From TrEMBL, chain B:
Entry protein name: 4-carboxymuconolactone decarboxylase
One of the Pfam families matching this protein, by short name: CMD
PANTHER family, per database record: ALKYL HYDROPEROXIDE REDUCTASE AHPD, BLR3452 PROTEIN
Organism from which the protein derives: Flagellimonas alvinocaridis
Domain (Carboxymuconolactone decarboxylase-like) ranges: 23-101
One Gene Ontology term of the molecular function aspect: peroxiredoxin activity
Transmembrane parts of this sequence: none
Annotated InterPro entries: AhpD-like (IPR029032), AhpD_core (IPR004675), AlkhydPrxdase/COmuclacdeCOase (IPR026445), CMD-like (IPR003779)
Length: 362, 111
């Protein structure tokens, strides 16, 4: 008993599951967990049966709005909850050739938003060239998901805020909490202070200031086995604390639910929280969120050019169920006529107010 | 039967109390839901009050529920512990203020 209430002294992992040869690095093992246990026993309903109740099985896409491109899994951080299993040891990096194929698509897509993610996308050696070229395509909203610490990680990244500004990039950054302790526990020692410095630097060049066209939004992921609460209330708390303590401003906070895959799944199982977490997700299932789950308006492209319904399916190796499976064969019309691939992790996007890379959806 | 009075999994079954008394159960849950909505007090403040009361009434289900609720709302552990102390202080104060009754009785009975 006494042991269980002692502070956890476990050090954050420094390596990806893949480098640690953890069995959950294999997508087949993750799928086995997601389809087994509670769901195989019939104790909890399968996601496909749940959405069938409201006539959404098979789940079908609406018009494409967001093209999300993952330019590589390499990252300067090894966050405990990372669904990408990103880290410094990951070598999967999008080549210039694949980027060229992506650019061809970006120039012709009907999507209004381009969303670059990783890993730390900035660590791709062709990142700046790619941003320069992509920004010429005239996409309405050009997002780069930056983890903030990368800006402070090395001298060669210090000018990123100016670079983003020059290309009118919409910066979306992770910030698990407005206190040091919670942030560092999830993301590693020193991450909070570096993130604060980076946010101040972004504010200095004009990002996040009320009324500014230079959009700076923050992403909040719960740092543990619980769901995010009301996004508007969290935004209010974040704004007040960051302004009072550090004079930092930002536009919107996106509250994103952690999906039970990859390192977060490993954490759930290791901390004996997996079953309770799945119960929480299923109990919080909101049919209204199904209407707008992001896979209905997004295509996710992996570092090696394969196409997925979302970044989570990408990490589970679940390619789109379409004749067109690779960026080199991209055809929006053909792609949009597909059934979306689902499994039990999808409950993460339909819990409560729903969750997407753009925050709540219901 | 379970060999313990409390089973964490029973918390998930709380809603089942309506099965044996639908009207009263529903009235309770409607009331409960309404109480914790944003009002003159924020839902966040009410969550901390609930956590303090959970400790005072020593309800393990409520402690689990409102620790999780606090985490979801971004409430810090320092805030949670202060709330528990506020509850504990009132509870111990309620015991100690009866010391006056003891003193009164003692004095009345003593020559």
């Amino acid at each position: 008993m006494a042991e269980s209430i002692m502070p956890q002294l476990k050090k954050a992992a420094k390596k990806s599951l893949k480098a640690r040869e953890n069995e959950l690095a294999y997508t087949s093992k993750q799928m086995e967990v997601l389809n087994g246990g509670l769901f195989a026993d019939g104790e909890l309903p399968l996601f496909k049966d749940k959405i069938a109740e409201i006539g959404h099985s098979p789940l079908r896409p609406k018009a494409l709005e967001i093209l999300q491109i993952n330019v590589g899994y390499m990252c300067n951080q090894v966050c405990e909850h990372c669904h990408v299993d990103a880290g410094p040891d990951r070598k999967e990096i999008m080549t210039r050739e694949t980027m060229e194929q992506c650019l061809e698509v970006i120039r012709n897509t009907g999507a209004h938003t381009l969303d670059l993610t990783g890993g730390a996308p900035e660590m791709n050696p062709n990142f700046r060239w790619f941003v320069e070229e992509a920004s010429k395509a005239g996409i309405q909203d050009f997002i780069v998901r930056s983890n903030l610490t990368i800006i402070r990680a090395n001298k060669k990244y210090h000018d990123l805020p100016e670079f983003f500004k020059k290309h009118n990039v919409h910066v979306v950054s992770s910030m698990p909490h407005y206190t040091r302790g919670k942030t560092d526990k999830q993301r590693g020692d020193g991450v909070f202070d570096k993130s604060i410095e980076a946010l101040q630097q972004l504010n200095t060049v004009g990002y996040g200031i009320p009324g500014s066209d230079l959009r700076l939004d923050l992403v909040y992921n719960p740092s543990g086995a619980f769901l995010p609460s009301d996004q508007a209330a969290m935004e209010r708390d974040f704004k007040k604390a960051l302004k009072e303590d550090f004079n930092i401003e930002f536009h919107n906070l996106f509250a994103i639910t952690n999906l039970p895959i990859s390192r977060f799944l490993d954490y759930l199982i290791a901390s004996d929280n997996y079953e309770d977490y799945m119960y929480s997700l299923v109990e919080a299932y909101n049919p209204a969120a199904v209407e707008n789950v992001m896979c209905t308006n997004t295509i996710s492209v992996s570092w090696d050019g394969w196409l997925y319904d979302c970044d989570f399916n990408q990490m589970l190796g679940l390619k789109v169920a379409s004749k067109v499976k690779h960026i080199k064969d991209y055809n929006e019309e053909v792609l949009n006529d597909r059934n979306i691939v689902i499994s039990q992790h999808c409950y993460g996007c339909t819990a409560g107010a729903g969750s997407s890379c753009q925050g709540t959806v219901a | 039967m379970a060999n313990s009075y409390y089973d964490p999994a029973d918390l998930r079954k709380f809603g089942n109390i309506t099965e044996w008394s639908e009207e009263l159960g529903n009235k309770f849950f409607d009331y409960y839901g309404k109480v914790f909505e944003e009002g003159a007090l924020s839902a966040r403040e009410k969550s901390l009050i609930a956590l303090a009361v959970a400790h005072v009434v020593k309800c393990p289900y409520c402690i689990d529920a409102y620790t999780k609720d606090g985490l979801q709302r971004g409430i810090t552990k320092e805030e949670m512990m202060e709330a528990v102390h506020a509850g504990a202080a009132i509870e111990s104060g309620a015991t100690l203020v009866h010391g006056v009754q003891m003193m009164n009785k003692y004095n009345k009975l003593s020559m």
